[in-house]
Amino acid sequence: MNREIFIEKYQSYKLEESKVIEYLNTVITFEEFIGKDIDATNIRDIKEYAEYLISIKQNTYNNLVHIARYYYYINKSDLYIHMTKYFNSIGVFESILDRITIYESKAKQEEIIKNMKLPPFGLDSTVLPTYTKEFMDILNKHLPRNSCNKILSGNNHKIPKESFNKEKEFYKNSESLETYLKDRHNRKVVELQKHYDNNLVWFEQIITKEAIEYVKSNQEILSGVVKNKKLYVTKIPYDINNYLSEENDVLKRYYACHCSFVRENIKDEKEDISKEWCYCSGGFAKYPFEIILEQDLEVKLLKTPLDGDYVCRFEIDLSNIKYK
To answer: What percent of the chain has pLDDT over 70?
Structure first.
């Protein structure tokens, strides 16, 4: 591995030298296990190592995240993007279970939890739908539909509210919510253009000219549109370049879906997973606006690839919400 680039990047975080060495050693341990330089590894190697860590109960965030970051530093985008699937699923089930007491009783939460078997961190995404199917079956058995949807639609990725401080300021300085949304969309298009110009991965995406034009054509993507006191949000496809070129119905839906818990099931359809699972994605969609508007919001699932649609689309109710 290129130790110099790893050390240089980590030293820029102002970490203690002992921590830099500790994190470097997690990458070296991966190399020793797989028997090759990390620069020569592939997705199969990553999966094998993740399975090994699970087997020895060392499947921690710390034992994988520094490997992912190294791939990012050396522009191994496909390997970095693969590893983001592990991190996108961490803590989500646990967060949903924690939210049960908000809308139901502690006793109901305990009744549900005792029947749950949660997936270990680092599990391959091809296996996750089985856990999701069981998870949803248990929730649906014990909870009324409306309550279940509200429980699912939280900030289950634990995104810090401070992440949206700049957006709050943009909204504060806007004439109206509609003006803010237009400005937000324009800023996001500029952000994508910068990633394209500098050949940088944007979250889990490789950005192309076609991707930028697709986002530019629909303000609902990476922003939103207000109609009749409803805010409409459409998620950007997960693998946008394959999505735009794909003609096969199933694969197009597969490339649209972001969710590690169900995405593989769109292809193989091994499990009959309730589409209401996607209220979890609805929680992700509404959370930034809850922070910006400083109010709790209700979300409604309109479209999901899990139910045969080509996009994830949500409606956020603003009818009883104060906004400019």
So the answer is: 100
